[in-house]
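Support reply, case 0932

Customer input (verbatim):
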Amino acid sequence: MACRICLNPYRHKVLRLTSQLLLHPSPAQLASQADTIASLTNQRNMLLHQSADERQRWQAERDSWDRIADVLTAKARAVHEPAVRDQETQRYIARLEDDVKASRRRLADTQTRLSTLESEMSRLRPLLSMQATILRD
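Our regenerated output:
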């Protein structure tokens, strides 16, 4: 019982000292605590932002790998299926034929313009030679 009595005054003294600090904290202590809380809040926000960025980056990488796997699977399937290869070849040939037709049209247009310009030049040649003789006189 003597020990309890010894601890009791000590306990009361500690409670009185700490309760005084809790009830009336100093402005410096409040400012320090506010700075610490703000710093911790900023750190937490930064960590949350970094975590979200990492999740997005990993998701984008997973999506990229999925697309690559799909393309490689489709190509592997296409190589092994002759009907698919035949269709691709026919599409390629059709594209080439369209290109040839377009080139032939452009060639025909160019030849028509060239013949028109040559005929105009042949009509202008006598006029130009007459102007040259008139200018000399």
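We compared this against your earlier run and they match. Two observations from our side: The radius of gyration is 46 Å. The helical segments are 2-23, 27-80, 82-136. Please reopen the case if you see a mismatch on your end.
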